[in-house]
């Protein structure tokens, strides 16, 4: 495993700071009363392009040589990372090729185009996505950037927790949702390096609990179905982030679809902010196990706010 130091993560933060927002940390007296603990929400729904993934995408691009930057970058994604890499590339004046499945919602394709990404459509299978991206690498000389299984991406995502800990150094626990593992991996590194005594906990829907099962089995598991409202958490862990998760994540709490919806409504109604369903998974975990969190100082990473209201039924 690579050596991760405080200095390295601080350098990443300094590198990307001109291109990202330092997002606010919000609290809710009512939610604290309901949960019987003090929760500090790091609101990456206010990040550029609406999600934490802007951090990792920016860092990955800035780590490329000028020669490689001129050739552009490529990823396969139909979600937030497609938008993040497109906007990060646009901010730095380089080309981003985005491989998207033909089944991707038009609203997501429109968002990528708005941020300057060049979309290449392919059949909706992982094999097709990977093959199409590889073809662009070979034809254009572009550098492939994985949405979550890339060390520079993981370190970039960890800067959200770093900012949280700089403002709230006495947290007992930091919780994030788990999809591809980039956010939880980066968060776990930041907590391990900078927290006084805090632990990192992951939150995951029962419907896509591959990370929970992976920690038990010791190998990366897959999901047979992805029937969850938390559409951003349908991806699986990779060989770069899984060892970090194994070493630094205390546990993973699984939540039901109903618990996710209830947490989502609570944030929308009581905090008056729009977050995507994946973001509500972390709060759902806190509410599910009140004894574990009672009277503690809790950091929750709100991962994003890109909601497709046509797809949500609460």
Shape: globular
Kindly report how far apart the N and C termini lie: 42 Å
Low-confidence stretches: none
Query: Largest beta sheet: what is the strand line-up?
Result: 1-2-10-7-8-9
Strand percentage: 15-25%
Number of E-state strands: 10
The domain count comes to: 2
Main sheet specs: 6 strands, mixed
Q: Mean of residue pLDDT?
A: 94
What's the CATH topology label of the largest domain?
A: Rossmann fold
Number of helices: 14
CATH architecture of the largest domain: 3-Layer(aba) Sandwich
Order of helices and strands: HEHEHHEHEHEHEHEHEHHEHHHE
CATH top level class name of the largest domain = Alpha Beta
- Provide the structure class: alpha/beta
Helix content range of the residues, please?
Answer: 40-55%
Keywords: Lyase, Pyridoxal phosphate
GO molecular function: ATP binding; L-serine ammonia-lyase activity; magnesium ion binding; pyridoxal phosphate binding; serine racemase activity; threonine racemase activity
Protein name: Serine racemase
Cofactor: pyridoxal 5'-phosphate
In a few lines, what is going on in this structure?
Residues 16-304 form the Tryptophan synthase beta chain-like PALP domain. The chain is built from 14 helices and 10 strands. With 314 residues, the chain is α/β, with parallel strands linked by helices.
Q: Helices and strands in order, then pairings?
A:
Layout lengths: L5 H11 L8 E2 L2 H7 L2 E6 L9 H10 L3 H6 L1 E4 L3 H12 L4 E6 L4 H9 L3 E5 L3 H15 L2 E2 L6 H17 L5 E5 L4 H13 L4 E7 L4 H8 L24 H7 E7 L1 H15 L5 H12 L1 H4 L3 E6 L12
Parallel strand pairs: 2-10, 3-4, 3-6, 4-5, 7-8, 7-10, 8-9
Antiparallel strand pairs: 1-2
Protein name: Serine racemase
GO molecular function: ATP binding; L-serine ammonia-lyase activity; magnesium ion binding; pyridoxal phosphate binding; serine racemase activity; threonine racemase activity
GO biological process, one term: D-serine biosynthetic process
